Fold:
Amino acid sequence: MTVTDSTPAIEVTNLSKTYRRAFRKTGTVALRGMDLSVPQGSAFGLIGPNGAGKTTFIKSILGIVQPTEGAVRVLGGSPEDARIRARIGYLPERLHLPHAWTPTAFLATVGRLKGLAPDPAGNLRLLERVGLSDAVGRKIGGYSKGMRQRLGLAAALIGKPDLLVLDEPTDGIDPMGRMEVRRILQEEVQRGTTLFLNSHLLAETERVCDRVAILADGRVLREGRLDELVRGASRWLARFAPGVSVEALTQAGFVQGRADGVYHVDAGDPAVLNVALDRARAAGALLVELRRDGMDLESVLLGTVGAGASRVEVAA
Amino acid sequence: MRPVLGIAGYVLREAASRKFILAFMVGITLVLAVVAVSLRLEVIDGALAASRLFGKELRGNIQSIDVALRPVYQAAAFIVFYGGILFGIVACSDFAPGLMSPGRIEHLLALPIQRWHLLAGTFLGVMTLALGGTLYGTTGLVLIFGVKAGYWTVGPLVAGLMACVGFAAVYAVMLTTATLVRSAALCAASGFAFMVGGIIAGHRQDISTFFEEGLSRSAFLAVTLVLPRLSALAEAAGDIASSTPLEVRSLGTLLLGVFVFGLGALAVGFWRFEGKDY
Structure:
């Protein structure tokens, strides 16, 4: 099969996974007929509550977990294919590193297992890139949690993968370190790498990703472009210059916001919005800012999961 | 083959960082050094005339050096066989469960290697470790007695290799156990149980007489039939080390039996590992 740019980096259809245990009739259902497509070159975030099936999904697209049902295609092929996995960089949620090793030895081993030629200089550059250049000579056992995460990220970046699958990459990393990690991830996306990020830190996902899927109870509840998801459908935010009459604006259909001069208006149609604005201006109000009244990702997640929506809404 | 070697290297690097294994190597070195320094042999015309240990004369008949060294080599072969397997069970019990621990197995399985590479590499790494340790000890012994007595034999080396074959069968069971239960203690327990079973299997005909004729005896013989006959292999190793005629009827069949058992155990482990979720 020829892989083109239009081929999704990850494509799952009707993916189901039930963990069965010996001597038990029923199993634990982790994924229930999940459909998802991650475009190549995108920065894709997977969010959802605990037990939603995020880690199972990640393991499924890497061939670590065998799906009970459904099809998984990664980079145009099967995750069972070692050649496909050679193009993937993966950072597990709780990466267990060999304590007695040095970071260079660890990266050299990962590189060897990836079938790459030895590149000690390249490994040193990677360690420098993730901010571990001062700790190259130390054994991994002496590393802090954040340093281990950085090393895990360096291991994932070995061989310039086409797809980066990162499970909680900034877990344990301090705020400055998170900024550095974010910068690295953005550089990778600019390079053309597809980024698949699973993080509990929604602000992190919001800053890095351009597409997001919300997973709950083993199903994708919402999926689409981040700006589309966080955008309010019909709610607008307007800021007026000081001295405006609250009463006049209320009569024009505006609701006073928390900040001074900030008002909200519901207008699904541009004509309705302009009528409200014309009334406000006729009352002497001077408009200084107008934008869609967006939500943050947390509100989107809470709204989606809280509503218990079972339908899949594709925003883009 | 490269991924298998890569995993074997991974295991060996892990082993090199274990103080327990390093202490064992230092222990072997110290024993060899003590023997080399404290033992003096006076060999005249191929016969052992006198021997001193820590300066104290060991009384014994004057006899040909090869005959005199037989019990030494035989004892060494038994120590290497049983001691080596026991140490291997304890020292290597957590290699496979360690590789399969959460956070490590996911990382390894996401690399471009096949699942069987992981098990084969672990097995190869552990066997390289066992072979290296055995050859280090037995070669040291042969060199010491060769230099001191002028008697050179490869018997102890062959006996050491046979001990490795026995350990391979035991470790195959341990590796398979690790694919079923991720527990170092259970791996060690299964290895120990099969070692004891292998010792019993080597004497199954003698022991079977303690069972009443009929179902119990038949059941005992049936169960021990499939076990590797480790005690018979140890005795054969002792005979080869001491250059005495073999008591077992067919060494080839014995080795083949142990090999087939190990291969069967590994096949179960590979099959289980291929379909397991982590």
About this structure: Residues 175-191 of chain A form the longest helix (17 residues). Chain A has two domains: 10-229, 233-292.
